Amino acid sequence: MAKISINLGSGTIEKSSDIVVGIDLGTTNSLIAVIDGETKAPVALSDSDNNHVITPSVLYRHPDGHFLVGDAAKDMLVKHPEQTVYSVKRLLGKSFNDVSEFEASYGYKIIDEDEDRLVKIKLENQFYTPIELSAEILKELKSKAEAKLKLEISKAVITVPAYFNDAQRQATRDAGKLAGLEVLRIVNEPTAASLAYGIGLDADKEKVVAVYDLGGGTFDISILRIEDGIFEVLATNGNTFLGGDDFDQAIMKHWLDGHEVKFSDLSKRESQQLRLLAEEAKKKVCTTGPYVGSFRNTSLTLAESEFNQLIEPLVDKTIDCCKNALADSGLELNEIEEVVFVGGSTRVPFVVKTVSDYFAKSTIENTLNPDETVALGAAIEADILAGNRRDLLLLDVTPLSLGIETLGGLMDVIIPRNSRVPFKAGRNYTTSIDGQVNLKISVYQGERGKVSENRKLAEFVLNGIPAMPAGIPKVEIAFILDADGILKVRAKELRSGVEQTIDVKPQYGLTDAEVETMLKDSLSNAQKDMDYRVLHEAINESEYLIKSTEKFVANNRLTLNDDELGAIEKHVNTLTLAVAQKDKDQIQTAQDALNEYTKPFAERMMDNTISTALKGKSIE
Ligand code: ADP
Ligand code: MG
Fold first, then answer.
1. Of 155, 117, 106, 138, residue with least CA distance to 6
2. CA-CA distance, 388 to 189, in Å (whole number)?
3. What is the mean pLDDT of the chain?
4. Going by CA atoms, what residue is nearest to atom 6 of ligand 1?
5. Which of 7, 172, 542, 574 is deepest in the core (most CB within 10 A)?
6. Residue positions annotated with a catalytic role
């Protein structure tokens, strides 16, 4: 079977060897992975010297304006903290107001040019959006993979935390685009992690899993129900300021407590140095044994038991999050069938033990490299979208409800949370005032009854409704959610045909013009993506139908006359032709015709089987 891939640029389906990569764009570290052509297994790509699979999500802006990304930039954290950006993922899709309380914790400058716009980062005298900076990280990953594979890469699947809202997902997508990548799909990190363990690849099995992801600076727990290729997020919880970095801090504090030196006595450079020593000690005690080092001519030591004591309160915090997530999911502890461990900090044996003890009976998945798991799963999803695993179709669900504001500031949900994506739903509304010619439509995301407690995504006005008494106009509002969970809203007055469509853009976005062109592209691609999937499914179904018809004919040749055999062959040929031409409507018509024609035979055969069975029985 030839490989089929979709060219999102032209919208055509073509034979190609095009590779789709999976990318884990992490807060601390990022990775890129592909399916190995020979082993068919996902692999995380290293750079050409085979050393560095992980790219630290750190950027240093060189005075000449270009960026250093990864390990080289990480070294600059000590030398040039003001020009070195880390944890940019925390700022994606956020306004200054969203992040101002944490501003002090960043070594670089975050600014609000205009408070309702996307937050920017000031480096030297230049302003950068988190989208542009994330794009720099993606570019680095792209060129790393291109050098390794000696192939040009233009298509990717990128993962995001399950709780990411519309604005954050759009921002991630835009970053991909700026890096020169067509983002075929935005996938939830816990979905990717499950896939990496093969969970969800067997469509018949239902499974409930907890994905425990402890990275460098963030902790996420997600509870998923996976069935028929659908990954339903039952609950998410976590702490966006809890992770391996806090383990390092705890070690530093422990070291300083035993000495006269205080945190405040350390220079910026020294505290970075001490932090790196703490991280080294952490990794050492978790793998090979006690750590011995030195700083300012004093010796530093750390034993595993000491380390476990230091981090116990932090690990307990993650367990509290697990309890909350479990309560939100409405499940009992014993209904969790497996626990999937993700994130570099789950390398710590004490973490794995504490979490496994809490989940008691569950099966544990931690055989993969925990900092590669998400990227490996993204590569599997990428492979599916590239058309290499034709039997599979994986879907995420939307984590938050989408709706509009109705009279009294109430949230009227149009697409409920946990709906599968892509999804389309509509509802009719009317005017409340006689002669009303405009209708303001405000779109919200969230679970609360009052819109003021939900997140506003967009607002637009449907103009030009002919003046009619209140209650007479019939305005249909349709929500069209694409496969990435990104929304388009259409409002149409049905009596007059007045219509307006908007692409919902993030509340805190790029400039209108930038977003407009970007979103137009992404939405038309999403439409093509969706068309492609529909066609793909129709082709699969046809191939199955043709096969089973041929089998039927082979098994029942004697009971069919020549006319019937001829007619079946003709219908099969028409369908085969339609499949070859990749025409969705023609395929559907030909399928229906073949089904219609063969139905009576199937019934007859069934009757035969029954009467044969009956014949075999002695009734007398
Ligand atoms: P993120 O998802 O936030 O980008 P990662 O999953 O890559 O982060 O995890 C990074 C964290 O994992 C860092 O805090 C790092 O110190 C920690 N880590 C990596 N290897 C080990 C190890 N062997 N032992 C303990 N912690 C580790
Ligand atoms: Mg991660």
1. 155
2. 21
3. 83
4. 343
5. 172
6. 24, 89, 189, 213
Q: To which CATH superfamily is domain 5-243+311-395 assigned?
A: ATPase, nucleotide binding domain (3.30.420.40)
Helix, strand or coil for residue 96? helix
What confidence tens digit (pLDDT) does each residue in 247-285 have?
Answer: 999 999 999 987 777 777 788 778 888 988 999 999 999
Same fold for the domain at 402-515 and the one at 525-614? no
As a whole number of Å, the CA-based R_g of the chain is: 28
pLDDT of residue 127: 86
Query: Ligand 1 test: best mutation among 25, 28, 87, most atoms within 8 Å of CB?
Result: 28
Percent of the chain with pLDDT over 70: 84
Instruction: Please tell us whether the domain made up of 525-614 is placed in CATH 1.20.1270.10.
Output: yes
Angle at 497 between CA 515 and CA 404, to 5 degrees: 50
Give the per-residue pLDDT at 16: 37
Report the alpha-carbon distance of residue 194 to residue 211 in Å, rounded.
8
Q: What is the SS3 assignment for 441? A: strand
Report domain extents, the chain: 5-243+311-395, 402-515, 525-614
Of 351, 33, 422, the residue nearest 192 (C-alpha): 33
pTM of the shown model: 0.68
Q: Rounded to the nearest whole angstrom, what is the distance from the C-alpha of residue 342 to the centroid of ligand 1?
A: 10
Nearest CA to ligand 1 atom 26: 345
Give residue 109's identity as a one-letter amino acid code. Answer: K
Q: Does domain 402-515 have CATH number 2.60.34.10?
A: yes
Q: Taking residues 104-124, report their average pLDDT.
A: 73
525: pLDDT confidence band, cut at 50, 70 and 90?
low
